[in-house]
Design a protein that fits this description.
By secondary structure, the protein is α/β, with parallel strands linked by helices. It has two domains: 168 residues, Medium-chain alcohol dehydrogenases, catalytic domain (Quinone Oxidoreductase, Chain A, domain 1, Alpha-Beta Complex); 135 residues, Rossmann fold (3-Layer(aba) Sandwich), CATH 3.40.50.720. It is built from ten helices and 18 strands. Strands 3, 5, 6, 9, 10, 17 and 18 form a seven-stranded mixed β-sheet that branches. Strands 13-12-11-14-15-16 form a six-stranded parallel β-sheet, with helices on both faces. A three-stranded antiparallel β-sheet has the order 2-1-4, covered by helices on one side. Strand 14, helix 7 and strand 15 form a beta-alpha-beta unit. Helix 4 packs across helix 5. The protein is globular, with a radius of gyration of 19 Å. The chain starts with a strand and ends with a strand.
């Protein structure tokens, strides 16, 4: 099969790779669409020791099952492979499973390929009304959905009454804004430094889209809910400054893990700071249903390319040459 293989820092090659082999509890999938995630870019830059070269990256996948009782089924892949028997798994918090693995991280190869093998329990059937290209957005949007559910749980007031701020206009940030809107929020500000992505967010009907690098664009202490979908020192600092007393900050982004956190202000203003990691299977199914129903908008904020154009796609994302919140690659026609 053809695959896009990470071979070293800022090196990714479109080449032949061995076909994956399904075990007795697995399914083989012809990948129809796979999104490029920020974590793929992080690995591409050589900044993720969990993803050593050579490795097939990619974990936001949708496709068609090959053979077996599910043969021909259109599915989206939950890339988190968990044990299923620990306390967290049995309580519905499988995203916290200590034994969790994820495709695109050893020992599991990723989905920037024509075929992929995953456990059968990790597939969800895609509704007929949803194109596979958009179905591949279920993984990042489930991350957004999970973050917003945590915000709703910890917020001092209903989301429908809250002023919300989202840091970042990529797929997870825009997805969080869309999820907030689906949860009833009517006052959502999106902060994004890339002008092309700001236009994409505006095109999705958000009228408060600002450049946080510009002076005085974010009011101090205004937001009841802050979603940080970037997670670096600059966005953390802006999130803490923008949060009002008694508010909640949900930290989703994994940009870096140091600096930008004013613990004194968080304490004095009794601001809740919540980490949000991926999603549960409940989040995943709810997100897919919301996508199919149109509750998350038309999803037309992506750019589709073939897998063979993947090298150029990584370069364009690195250089900020695309306004799309997500580039989705098509490995095969299915």
């Amino acid at each position: 099969m053809k695959a896009l293989v990470y071979t070293g820092p800022q090196q990714i090659v479109f080449q032949d790779s061995p076909d994956p082999i399904a075990g007795p509890d697995d399914v083989l999938i012809n990948v129809g669409a796979v999104g490029i995630c920020g974590s793929d870019m992080h690995a591409f830059l050589g900044h993720d020791e969990r993803r050593p070269a050579p490795l097939i990256l990619g974990h936001e996948a949708a496709g068609v099952v090959v053979g077996g009782p599910d043969g021909g089924m259109r599915v989206v892949v939950n890339p988190l492979v968990t044990c299923g028997v620990c306390r967290d798994c049995l309580s519905g918090r499988e995203n916290l499973c200590a034994q969790r693995e994820i495709i695109s991280m050893p020992p599991r190869q990723g989905a920037f390929a024509e075929k992929i093998v995953v456990p059968r329990r990790n597939i969800i059937e895609v509704p007929d009304s949803l194109d596979l290209t958009y179905a591949a957005l279920a993984e990042p949007l489930a991350t957004s959905w999970h973050g917003v559910t945590l915000a709703a749980r910890h917020a001092a007031r209903p989301l429908s009454e809250a002023r919300a701020l989202v840091m970042g206009g990529g797929a997870v940030g825009l997805g969080a804004a869309l999820a907030l809107r689906a949860f009833g929020s009517t006052d959502v500000t999106i902060a994004e430094t890339n002008a092309l992505r700001r236009q994409t967010a505006t095109d999705q009907g958000f009228d408060k889209v600002v450049d946080p690098a510009a002076e005085n664009t974010l009011e101090a202490g205004f937001a009841d809910v802050v979603i940080d979908a970037v997670g670096n020192k600059h966005t953390r600092a802006a999130a803490v400054r923008s949060a009002r007393p008694g508010s909640v900050i949900v930290h989703i982004g994994l940009g870096d893990g140091v600096d930008g956190f004013d613990a004194r202000r968080v304490t004095l203003q009794e601001i809740s700071f919540v980490g949000a990691y991926t999603y549960t299977m409940i989040d995943f199914r709810a997100t897919l249903a919301a996508m199919a129903s149109g509750a998350l908008g038309n999803l037309k904020w992506i750019e589709a390319r073939s897998l063979s154009e993947g090298v150029e796609a990584f370069d364009d994302l690195l250089a900020g040459r695309t306004g799309a919140a997500k580039i989705v690659l098509h490995p095969a026609q299915v």
